[in-house]
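To the structural biology subgroup,

Please find below the input and predicted structure for B30.2/SPRY domain-containing protein, which we are adding to the shared reference set this quarter. The sequence is reproduced verbatim from the submission form. If anyone notices a discrepancy with their own records, reply to this email rather than editing the shared folder directly, so we keep one authoritative version.
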Amino acid sequence: MADAVAADDALAGPPSPPSPALPPPFQPPSPDTPMPDATPSAAETPNLPDTPASASADPETPFSDAALADASDADASGVAAPADDDGITNPLGGAMKHMALAPPPPPSKKSKKKNSNSVWTRPTSRKGKKKAKQPANSLAGSSSGANGRLPKPSSGEDELILTPAPRFAAELNDDAHDLPVLLSRVFKSDKVEVSDDRLTAGSSKGYRMVRATRGVATGAWYFEVKVLHLGSSGHTRLGWATNNADIHAPVGYDVFGFGYRDMDGSKVHKAWRAKYADQGYGEGDVLGFYIHLPDGELYEPKQPFLVHYKGLPFRAEAPKAAEQKTLDPVPGSEICYFKNGVCQGTAFVDIPGGRYYPAASMYTLPDQPNCEVRFNFGPNFELFPEDFGGRSVPQPMSDVPYRSYQLANEVPAENGSAEKTI
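Predicted structure (tokenized):
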């Protein structure tokens, strides 16, 4: 009978709540609240490396999210997944918070698109294939056209090679029919100062060169130079040089110059000093410069004429002359120097063919006055030698005739060549 009464009591009312002395891990919802579908509580959440529990134990875990470990994380079952959640679904249902995603695999290299808009990846961009440089001597070797190459000048039936000429040399040529032989203001270094009468030159910026306006290629010729000022640190190298000599270097620096040195009277050619005179020269000395080129016109390179193309001057030369680097020597040619009318001996023999100009180079320290020399091209020399030792008596450089360059302007032609117009 007692068992029946107990059964009736169990069916009559709801079960009593648990004792407060033994609280459950989480407060159960009321009977009216529907239970979520198998959503685990925070106590049942596994201790993954990026959970708040592990963050408190190891705050330096790379994937820890300790900033989110607060009271709101105590019950993950009652919090809906935010919009920016990791998107990982709990196998038991619902969204899990703080779950670390595996790092995505590196993107595979995509092939470059042929029609890409990137200027750096297009085959025809700057970083594409480089165009082969054309040799300097081949500028005129091909006809002009769509390639934009220089026109091929023509002089009769011969083809000529275009090489860049010194800029403005043709326009600023400071020689003329009505002028005597003077020092050039064009063919000189910008560090060399020339006097108003164009006969005195000085420099204080290292060895620099200045040459005369006219040169000689055949016969025997002579000029004088008087040393006006050397100072305690001044030096000079004087002599002959062709128009190919480097004006930013002293006379005798290269194969195109033959110099006479003041310090010990040595001779200089191709930057090599050699024993020559017994002693040097100094302030107040008058130096004479003698050159003899018998039949030198046969060994002088053919004079190139200047062609203007797109506002710039070019030298037009025959291919053989352009390719020849070393000129043939003139048999029987000779250079010798004089000091105060006395010959110092033969300095150079069998010199290469060419047109030789009187030249001077000066040097002194920057804080010293300019080292200065004065030219005398004749015919009234101060100390003209009385005896040339059996050599041909020279002519003064003042007798050298004016010699102009042929100047050809760019003229369109049907065959794409520039015709020479004088």
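Summary notes: DSSP finds three helices and 21 strands in the chain. Residues 2-12 form the longest helix (11 residues).

Regards,
Lab coordination
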